[in-house]
Amino acid sequence: MLYIKPTVKTAALALLLALSLCLCMLQAHAADVVCAQPKITITGGEQTVFNWHADHCSKMDFPDVPAYAFVDKDGKVQLLASNANGNYRMIGSSLGDVKRDCERPVLSSNPNKNAPPQAFDNRMWLTAPWTNDGQTIYALVHNEFDAWFDADKQFCQSGDKTKCWYPNAIQVMSTDTGKSYQPMRGPQGQVKIAMTTPYRYTPDGDTAGNQQGMVSQSNILSSKGADGKTYYYVMVVRSIGHDNKVGTCLFRSSDISNPEAWRGWDGKDFSAAMHNNPYSSTPSSQICAPIFSGFFCSGWTYNNVLHKYLAICRSNHFQTDQGAVEAFVYSTSADMLHWSKPEFLKRINWQGTFRASAMNSGVTAQTYPSILDPTSTGRNFEFSGASPYLYYTRFNPKERHAPWQNRDLVRVPLSVSCN
Q: What's the CATH fold of domain 13-418?
């Protein structure tokens, strides 16, 4: 199995592609033996990172994306996990003491409600930050055209949320250490698209009521290739859409400052350019091929115990001895492309039990998993060791007169070992 490691210990993904993915055995350094049987377990109870009742800056400030973090030029840790109507950051001296900064949203909390789908300038969720110096920060943004909520009814006759949305990814930049972010735009003021599918928005979905889009992004990792260039990688979830392939894709960029440099893995190489606006140009027929089918992977690191990449995903139908359950699962890989069979980590409630739960039933829900290790080296928490944390959003039980925004960001400690 070809062994590839991030920037601190380099090996060549570019060489992997040049050899047409012939996964040749390389002799590993004795201290870097790749673990054949990883074991990940939860070792403690939930710790609250953000409590909605006590910590929210505005009514619509709640964790609605996975938690990602970076270290700014002043040595402060900034953690991002908020909502389109309130993109606030958390900041502190370490991951363990970050607090909500309510001075102002770091990305506009007033989405362009009148922007049509072809503008790609709609509701924005700030995710996936990356910085080389702690001063200039690039971040991917989950952008949504929410026709049932914002737009003219011509875009959504049914009023059905599941049929009338159009998710994609754009990119923003901060030059003031993360105090504010602005969308990256072209010469005519148009938003530069990072990732979208080559299909236009269809009012009320296709014949099956589906929409095609790029649903969510993971954090960003980096690796230096044999050509000396640094490449950046991110996992992106595809919705079901036209070709009926739901799952997690892998994208690579050679220029983190250029939103249009991202290319998706198409099953052979990183050649799927998915940044063309299907309304104003002839869209490419290229589309990414999922590296995880049916799994929604939103957090990953390079683990220094396993000497492998470690991904945390959500499964809505994970098969166990007790039948199919909703669960957080984990998977490992030596090359980012070929992943182990996902293993059970934590049973959760999401689409099933929680949505069906009654008022005052005490049922919680869990989603948006990510992995962060306080001991990670570098500015972007790319690495994890023996004791990282699993972060996720907890939807609190339904109660009469309680706001639907009542959800918290929590974390639980993990143990990572080689069995």
A: Tachylectin-2; Chain A (2.115.10)
pLDDT at 8 over 70: no
Whole-angstrom CA distances from 408 to 49, 313, 354 are: 8, 19, 15
Phi-psi region of 288 (alpha: psi -120 to 50; beta: other; left: phi over 0): beta
> Is the pLDDT score of 1 beyond 70?
no
What SS3 class is residue 54?
helix
Helix (H, G, I), strand (E, B) or coil at 307: coil
If you ran DSSP here, which 8-state letter would residue 175 be given?
S
Give Cβ neighbours of residue 192 (< 8 Å, ≥ 6 apart).
170, 171, 183, 184, 185, 186, 259, 260, 275
User: How far apart are the C-alpha atoms of 169 and 183, rounded to whole Å?
Assistant: 11
Query: Whose CA is closest to 316, among 299, 341, 295, 331?
Result: 295
Of the candidates 164, 182, 162, the residue with the CA atom closest to the CA atom of residue 172: 182
Q: What is the largest CA-CA distance in the chain?
A: 63
| DSSP H or E stretch at residue 354 | helix 353-356
pLDDT by residue (tens digit) across 300-334?
999 999 999 999 999 988 998 888 999 999 999 99
Percent of the chain clearing pLDDT 70 (strictly above): 88
Using the CB atoms, write b or e for 315-347: b if 16+ within 10 Å. beebeeeeeebbbbbbbbbbbbbebeebebbbe
Residue 216: how many CB atoms within 10 A of its CB? 24
The most confident of 78-87, 170-179, 189-198, by mean pLDDT: 170-179
Structure tokens at 218: 């993971």
Alpha helices in 27-113 (DSSP H): 52-55
Read off the pLDDT band of 26 (50, 70, 90).
very low
Q: What is the DSSP letter of 353?
A: H
pLDDT at 11 over 60: no
Give the model confidence (pLDDT) of 270-291 as tens digits.
999 999 998 987 766 788 999 9
Q: Return the closest-CA partner of residue 284 out of 308, 262, 299.
A: 262
Identify whether the C-beta of residue 416 lies closer than 8 Å to the C-beta of residue 303. yes
Q: Which residues contact 389 (CB under 8 A, 6 or more apart)?
A: 95, 371, 372, 373, 374, 411, 412, 413, 414
Tell me the whole-structure pTM to 2 decimals.
0.90
Helix (H) / strand (E) containing 224: strand 214-224
